[in-house]
């Protein structure tokens, strides 16, 4: 019997479309999409029922919309709410889990306290330190209370910015708490700064001091400036914190446009990084995490990897998990809707998820040019030559108008480089 559930997707980005595509491919379902804007490649899809809601980035509006939506779902069908690639959505779902569950939703996010802990970068690096997981050389500059585990971890907590007067620049500066950073009123605010001198650091620190941001700044060595130094890991853990499915990919190209900066656009999965996946496995076990986690890892100039962060939700590019051999919605449905143990519910091939893949949001010419290094280009070429690469938005099964919008998005990528 087909499972009785109904996907409700928040956001219509690449991940939103990937969900809708997969819920149809695997379960034959049409997904409800609630979005704050009309993203054509998703709204015109045969596999979505799409509503634009003003103010969906406000908690009250979001909850009201979800409550109304729950009321429209027939009895005996379980709504499953999923966020797009938005930390704010994942956070808001975790925070309101009790209400959402009371309205009937399956809510595939970790508990709020754990989410809040892991997404604060000073606390994340403190955990890495404790678990022997490599991370960049880091200083913590506090603008408020520092968590005990950070002070206890051996991370270097600065008494003031003066302590870095003689340090080697450039240095990376980024907020430990992106939720709080979102509300900080700072001119020309960045997600990540690369600062060239001590004077620049003093200036940014003074701006932050005046802004009302009351967490820490993370100050780090610059590991690399190349997109090709990045790796992405996606793992799915069962209720006991055991990783049951894991995929790694090497980032080839990242988005450089102002809005999308930092999103991987080309990911190559022809070399499984068991060393990195083993670190992720220990991290997940230690924290008692369950569900999807997505880690960012970056190599330094010597090629040594360092963990940058964990995203406590599926990444925008989660469709690469499908390409690797495990339809990425399947563990979510098994675990959160059907209450099955993914250790036994997934097939051997799905659990292994070790098929070579190339995920590309850009045309071959752009990917090959941006890859630069000839050795890396040679790894990409067979996928393009044999047509075995994939972009989740380009879907032959969807209707003509969707395929046209997806194609426009794809061709438009040429102008971003
Ligand atoms: N220490 C570092 N050295 C070089 N680049 C970095 C460093 N830290 C962050 N970056 C760059 O900034 C991006 C975002 O950093 P990350 O720590 O993943 O935070 P977030 O994604 O939450 O903004 C990374 O993908 C990487 O390109
Ligand atoms: Mg990141």
TrEMBL record:
Pfam families: CPSase_L_D2. It comes from Actinomyces urogenitalis DSM 15434. This is ATP-grasp domain-containing protein. It comes from the Bacteria. Signal peptide: none annotated. Keywords: ATP-binding, Nucleotide-binding. GO terms for molecular function: ATP binding; metal ion binding. Residues 125-337 form the ATP-grasp domain. InterPro entries: ATP-grasp, CPAse_ATP-bd.
């Amino acid at each position: 019997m087909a499972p009785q559930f109904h996907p409700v997707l928040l956001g219509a980005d690449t991940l939103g479309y990937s969900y809708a595509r997969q819920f149809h491919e695997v379960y034959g379902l049409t997904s409800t999409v609630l979005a704050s804007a009309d993203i054509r490649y998703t709204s015109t899809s045969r596999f979505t029922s799409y509503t634009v809601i003003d103010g969906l980035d406000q908690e009250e509006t979001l909850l009201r919309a979800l409550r109304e939506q729950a009321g429209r779902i027939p009895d005996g069908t379980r709504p499953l709410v999923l966020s797009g690639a938005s930390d704010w959505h994942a956070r808001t779902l975790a925070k309101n889990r009790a209400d959402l569950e009371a309205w009937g939703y399956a809510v595939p996010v970790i508990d709020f306290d754990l989410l809040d802990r892991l997404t604060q970068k000073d606390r994340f690096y403190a955990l890495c330190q404790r678990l022997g997981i490599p991370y960049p050389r880091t200083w913590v500059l506090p603008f408020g209370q520092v968590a005990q585990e950070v002070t206890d971890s051996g991370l270097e907590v600065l008494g003031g910015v003066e302590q870095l007067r003689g340090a080697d620049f450039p240095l990376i500066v980024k907020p430990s708490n992106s939720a709080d950073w979102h509300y900080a009123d700072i001119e020309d605010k960045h997600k990540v700064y690369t600062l060239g001198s001590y004077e620049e650091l003093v200036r940014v620190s003074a701006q932050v001091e005046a802004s009302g941001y009351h967490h820490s700044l993370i100050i780090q060595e610059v590991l690399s400036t190349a997109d090709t130094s990045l790796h992405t890991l996606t793992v799915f853990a069962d209720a006991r914190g055991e990783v049951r499915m894991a995929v790694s990919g090497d980032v080839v190209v990242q988005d450089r446009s102002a809005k999308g900066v930092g999103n991987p656009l080309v990911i190559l999965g022809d070399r499984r990084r068991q060393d990195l996946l083993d670190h992720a496995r220990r991290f997940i076990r230690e924290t008692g995490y369950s569900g999807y986690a997505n880690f960012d890892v970056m190599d330094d100039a010597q090629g040594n990897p360092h963990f940058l962060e964990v995203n406590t939700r599926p990444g925008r590019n989660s469709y690469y998990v499908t390409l690797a051999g495990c339809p990425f919605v399947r563990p979510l449905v098994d675990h959160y809707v059907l209450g099955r143990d993914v250790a036994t519910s997934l097939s051997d091939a799905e659990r292994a998820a070790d098929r070579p893949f190339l995920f590309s949001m850009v045309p071959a010419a752009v990917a090959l040019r941006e890859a630069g290094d000839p050795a890396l280009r040679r790894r990409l070429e067979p996928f393009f030559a044999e047509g075995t690469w994939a972009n989740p938005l380009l879907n032959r099964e969807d209707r003509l108008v969707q395929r046209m919008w997806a194609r426009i998005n794809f061709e438009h990528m040429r102008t971003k480089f």
